[in-house]
Amino acid sequence: MMEKEKKDIEIVENSEEKKPTSRKKTIGLILIVLLITVVVFVIFSSFNDLGKTWEQICNMDFRFLGIGIALVVLYLISWPLSLMILSRRNLSKSKIKDNFLIGGSEHFFNSITPFASGGQPIQIYLYTQNGMSAANATGIVLSNFIAFMIATNAFAVASLFYFDRFTVNFNGSTIWIVILGFTMNLLTLAFIIALASSKKLGNLLIKAFAVLGKIKFLTKVIEKNLPTFEQYCSNFQLASKEIMSHKLDFLLAIVARGVSLLFYYSIPFFILLGLGISLEFTDLPFIILASSFTITTMVWVPTPGGTGGIEFAFTMIVSVFVIGLTDSELANITMASMIIWRFLTYYLLMFLSAIEYIIYEIIIKKRRKRSVKEND
Predict the structure, then answer these.
(1) Global pTM?
(2) Total domain count for the chain?
(3) What range does the domain containing 209 cover?
(4) Each residue of 74-94: pLDDT tens digit?
């Protein structure tokens, strides 16, 4: 009995990170996502004829919808490759299936949290449940995030060459949306790289939070979280230094992220083809860049998955590729394409990612039970 209790304590101690989201909180976030979805759908439907939009969807060539679903699956499969590359030199080597499931779980938690902020904390937690130290897990996950930011910003910068074309439907009162999105995306990349490489920046942030902690209504919150933040910065800088020393691995991680994004950004092309829009394969690169432009434009929207903002941007930008139609036909096509695109790239992806997360949790529980039995 004593041995079993000792083993249980060791398991808890090895789990260096607390779980970022409880089951109740996760359910609450999902309910918020559903509520926001309903509100956005009602708003968009008030500007369109839902009957005709639904008719457009029903008359779609479903072979192209199948290609869109296949691209979502390819995106989900290829997404964890960068994580596998960055973690392969770690001393507590995780299994391939663990990396795959941890990488895939990110989409679910990004989809239900504001600013897609839930993915990295849950990945760190899942790695620590697998025996990896919090320091190594933090370094690997955030270095992976840097690889993603470099890849996505490369597409975003390339899309700026077609700025005039993609913003033709924006005016003086809405163009700020585009500028804010691109500025935030580039500044986030610069900040995370600086934090990974500069102890001075980490110390400066810690001092800044300590000063804010002197404000009465912030004191309790900052005192509670400041030690965690200090450890977070230290873990990130130490592990990132080790990972970045393997430059080829980091470069391969960026390439892997770029390939997975190609699958993701290509989806609107096949949706439009399925809806009967006349496109050539020479248009595919423009659609890819337009997808990047759309997502980058709305990174600042605080709702889960950018819901509300990203649908608006998609309809504004995709209409550039739909020509020769009346205003009502254009509205129905763009609405139909947006609904299908959002279903595939957000809701379907979130559902598949949730399944991966559940599978991983089941695997971890089985390993723990097996470990306890072996030590009884």
Answers:
(1) 0.87
(2) 1
(3) 2-374
(4) 999 999 999 999 888 765 566
